[in-house]
Amino acid sequence: MNIRINQLGYTPSMRKTAVLQGRPADTLQVVDGSGEIVMTVPISPDSAQIWGDDVYSADFSALTQPGFYVLRCGDIASWPFSIEERPYASCLTALVDMLYYQRCGEDLRPELGGFAHPACHTGPARVYGTQELVEVTGGWHDAGDFGRYIVPAAKTIADLMLAWQWNKDAFVPGLTRLPEEMRYELEWMLKMQRADGGVYHKVTCALFCDMVMPHEETAELILCPVSTTATGDFAACMAMASRFYAGIDAAFAARMKEAAVRAWNFLDRTGPMLFKNPEGIRTGEYDDVTDEDERLFAHIELALATGEEKYADAALRALETIDRSAAPLGWADVRGYAAIEGLALTGKAGSLCREWLLGVADSLLARINAYGITMTESLPWGSNMDVSNDGMILAQAYALTGDMRYRIAAEQQLHYILGVNAVGYCFVTGFGSKRVLHPHHRASVVNGTPQPGMLSGGPASGLMDPAAQEHLQGAPAGKSFIDDHGSYSTNEICIYWNSPLIALIAALS
Ligand SMILES: [Zn+2]
Predict the structure, then answer these.
(1) Neighbouring C-beta atoms of residue 399, cutoff 10 Å
(2) Residues whose CB is under 5 A from ligand 1 (ion)?
(3) Would you call 260 exposed, middle or buried from its count of C-beta atoms within 10 A (0-12, 13-18, 19+)?
(4) Is 440 a known active-site residue?
(5) 492 is catalytic
(6) Structure pTM?
(7) pLDDT in tens, 437-464
(8) Is-catalytic flag, 210?
(9) Which of 440, 441, 465, 484 is catalytic?
(10) Looking at the structure, do residues 276 and 153 belong to the same domain, yes or no?
(11) What is the CATH number of the domain that holds 190?
């Protein structure tokens, strides 16, 4: 028997639902900081059978008085939690600051709570298959490894710009460093573009390194070939960022718009060039089966950034033919960004996107399970990204319609990440009562303690690493998680898992 709650707490106005694994009594008590029972609420009589448990729920939304509480049922208590106006503010700041510690190519300071180290990967990179050397320093390390890849960088940047866009009017303190932090990545992305407009897929060493600090990885850096997925994502992000920075630094914005146009022109005259790791390269492939979605995303962003008809025409043509039954916000499938950003287009294109986004949001609502998320049968590698992504779509649907069902479901995605899940972890390092202590993150392993502000990948039902295979045989999908630094398929960290959570918290703040 366990009582699962959001370990970081709730705002007074939120819907608050405890999820119980078992039902030793009919009611749940809310106990305040002085030990007094302030409320008794019924536990649902019916259970859902999921991931090996009979799961019940209890709604304590009537609790709105700020303070510290625990929930009790018989002898069992939940972790303590708070009711307050900004329960996620420090978590949001740490999630943004994590990106600082992913920075490559400069001396990192400890002030933001992470691990300092000297500048890494400062030499030039060699273009694969040639002797040509290119200066591509900067940007963020992708994940627990130190590679820098354009497609996941694009997902991260798109999420962060949405986070900012969703908060233009409601100032959220944790986001104030975003323009400076995103610029560090955007400046690197600009270096990854060739003069002809094509964009290199990634820069890494040939192989993943051992568990060492970033500056201790000193093998040769290799620039892998141009792909049209990287080029399409690049065009979209640069166009999007050119609007974002127009009021901050007009010259920087103009450079990005020019780069976006050059990338789009490359795409326009080039058929699909889908990336596969060339011989001898074994780092993250970030491969894809189509570049149709990246092209659509690029058309839409160029249309919004330039106002030119040729991009809007291309966007409408692509919108009419693309599969609009789903709206993923992935590194491989970026249709969701097209759906969200396309809402700003005029005429038929805009209404197609509205219909698309709300259709997908309704299908998410229909799939929500006892833990509040949409995945039940199998959970993919990095499932916490999918949970956060679903939250973004639902939050956008709420913003469009004002329909509280979307809002409550978006909040449920956040509650799941912060404690209302089958294993009871708060999945952001450094936060919550039951914490992730052993992420697959080299600097945390070297220093023997986890760096704060990193979202763990979360349960992955495929058991895709030796630690998962050793410890999780037979575990149900939602419990296929182990807090072990060897379990890269359930407990790695990366920039594009933090970013949708940043966007989700920003949307709900
Ligand atoms: Zn580096």
Answers:
(1) 15
(2) 104, 120-121, 146, 214
(3) buried
(4) yes
(5) yes
(6) 0.98
(7) 999 998 999 999 999 999 999 999 999 9
(8) no
(9) 440
(10) yes
(11) 1.50.10.10
